[in-house]
Amino acid sequence: MTKQNTKNNAEILCIGTELLLGNIVNSNARWISEELSYIGLEHYQQIVIGDNIERIQKTIIDASKRCRFLIVTGGLGPTPDDLTTEAIASVFKSELKERKEIWIEIQAKLRANGHSPSPSNRKQALMPKEALVIPNPIGTAPGIIWSPLPDFTILTFPGVPSEMKRMWKETAVDWLKSNTNNTQILLSKVLKFTGISESKLAELLEDLMNKKNPTLAPYAGLGEVKLRITAMSETKEKGINLITPLITEIVKRTGETLFGFDEESLSSVVLKLLRQRNETICIAESCTGGGLGASLASIPGASDMFLGGVIAYNNSVKRNLLKVPSQLIQEHGAVSKQVVTAMAEGARKVFGADWAIAITGIAGPGGGTKQKPLGLVYLALTSCEGTKISQLKFDKAKDRQVIQQLSVLRALNLLRLSLISRS
Amino acid sequence: MTKQNTKNNAEILCIGTELLLGNIVNSNARWISEELSYIGLEHYQQIVIGDNIERIQKTIIDASKRCRFLIVTGGLGPTPDDLTTEAIASVFKSELKERKEIWIEIQAKLRANGHSPSPSNRKQALMPKEALVIPNPIGTAPGIIWSPLPDFTILTFPGVPSEMKRMWKETAVDWLKSNTNNTQILLSKVLKFTGISESKLAELLEDLMNKKNPTLAPYAGLGEVKLRITAMSETKEKGINLITPLITEIVKRTGETLFGFDEESLSSVVLKLLRQRNETICIAESCTGGGLGASLASIPGASDMFLGGVIAYNNSVKRNLLKVPSQLIQEHGAVSKQVVTAMAEGARKVFGADWAIAITGIAGPGGGTKQKPLGLVYLALTSCEGTKISQLKFDKAKDRQVIQQLSVLRALNLLRLSLISRS
């Protein structure tokens, strides 16, 4: 036997001049990094290079000496500056062959979207002949899994994040899991919190965070903090036995700030709670302009609980559709406790829902005054038990879209807290 | 004289295990990339590595052979895993010396923020003795500008974006400008298209895409294709003179598929067109649940044109608020040309707007039938001139959120095309 294969690490190579020019942020590298850590694949380096064939070739040769798996994104499109597959094949002296079935599929997809296939699309069906294909269910650029050397495998993905993610989840991740030398398996669970800062959470869990197995890693997102618990063990059962008591302890310490697990979001949790109680919800949005509705509607099956809403951007809409008295708006202004209450109560009547949420505020950049500064937002939640109001004051340095998104999350959380306190 | 200095390119090296774990997105690399392109410094590669001294040393040695300027972020903090300065000094066999004035400044800053200086903070005052200092006006981690080799300079910055940016703008950028051999500047413009595939666009512009200056680079996003034009020239005026006729030619060839430039989006363009005509818009959304409204509302000043809308998820809402006749829904179903028309026309009356857009469809994953399959979406656009209907059939492999987002973009484009055809 020859020297044992000792490399078992991954590197990420993102190809695209748009990344080097700073046109887009490299969100793919972040997403893949997180996925690699879930699988437990070690990952020491990421590289970004442009659409230049010599540099792509050189980088692949160097990477083949350092890593077991090279995850490549970008450069799979139909245009002349899409060079990834060509560069890989030339480095390892493999010929590109057209896969007939892929070319047929590409043409069908283009036609389904109302485009006529062009000769340049044909390039996307060319692959090294030994490569496995990573099907692309939503685009025309399939990827490959190819091991040109015994201890080196390249996986390619398009740069479009939605396509890359689908291909990763549906094909690549299982292949990677079953082709690593890991005798230990990693089991991981993500806990999601809201209404608590990352540093406060870290303080509450300080003693647990020093443990070696399972490990705890918190990180802050917009309006939420995620905590990833990762256990390493020989079997899934042992992993579960390591994680379960830890979760019980964390739940005890963090109380109602813990809102969900893994892929759950505030909207999915709220809809799940409503479904359990067979209750319905409607909304009235001003400064968020539909963002709360879109957040609920993004969850499959939302229509069972979510009846609809009114986007009451203009005051006439508040009066006509939500029956907010003109006098209230004149006396207190559209951004006030009185008006947000009338919006929620009006919506609940109009839609005949069990719950109604209303949002009104000043998302900026214009529209702030001394009495009603930029970043002032009111939320109201109403049900047969009455109305709760919440006043939010966002830092005026936050931009419009952040204020809108945070307002939506706070509104969902207001409903969540009411639902769990009653169950 | 010895061999002339021929390297004149920059590389970016971001140091931090949090980047490799996917805890944060590498926004620093994007920001610095954009800055480098403004200065016209060529930039072929970015690397991300973790807090590991051997890998940092190896990466710096390799980079010193490839690039003239190495821009390093991260690893300047006070904790043991902050290794950047130490690694740089050891590679080039320089001793680290404490800069007294920096240590005094660090202590003063910590005290001003209510912290007492700890011995570990003292590390942040250590620098190679020949290095220039990049002052950090808002944090305790200054950076360095150091040329350990005649044709290689390292610039270091903390990983905290706000500190890095201030230090770049106040010190580094001027130093770089006056120390490059660059007589050329880069000017770039992004054109945005919809309703055309990346490959079709590349075909239309094939002859232009082969030019060396300006260069053209297309890339596909969700529902749009971007085309970046980049010109290199001695002055900004000459750059504009290179780009302007090219844009004119592209506009001629691509017609109404070109919707905007640089930071513009379909929503911002549609709102700009409405503002120019002093016209208003309202919406009625079913399967997108508020996404169209949120997209419009994300643009500052939207409230001048966007009156509001109805999220008519449930059929009772279509009947009660949008006055869609029950009979139409019974006869044709909620997802039909007849109902989408009634939704748009109903909304336009209720809101008294110049324009109304309605969306109804089956975003899935459930709810599809043989007659009305998953991915079937109807759009209607109505104004005083009548109603236009558009039927979309999305590939059923697309997921719910993608179908919702694409439906919103197609609806905005329907309005855009009507607005430009009338102007």
The portion of residues forming beta strands of chain A comes to 25-35%
Give the chain pair forming the largest contact, with residue counts: A-B, 96 and 96 residues
Total beta strand runs of chain A: 17
Mind telling me the C-alpha Rg of chain A? 26 Å
Oligomer: homodimer
What does this structure look like?
The structure is a homodimer of 423-residue chains. The first copy, chain A, has 423 residues and is an alpha/beta fold. Chain A has 3 domains: 9-178, Molybdenum Cofactor Biosythetic Enzyme, Chain A; 185-261, Alpha-Beta Plaits (2-Layer Sandwich), CATH 3.30.70.2860; 266-421, CinA-like (Maf protein), CATH 3.90.950.20. Helices cover 40% and strands 25% of the residues of chain A. In chain A, the strands form 4 sheets. A 6-stranded mixed β-sheet of chain A has the order 2-1-3-8-7-6, with helices on both faces. In chain A, strands 14-13-15-16-17 form a 5-stranded mixed β-sheet, with helices on both faces. Chain A has a 4-stranded antiparallel β-sheet with strand order 10-11-9-12, with helices on one face. The first copy, chain A, is globular. Chain A starts with 8 loop residues before the first strand and ends with a helix. The mean pLDDT of chain A is 92. Strand 14 (306-311) of chain A pairs antiparallel with strand 14 of chain B.
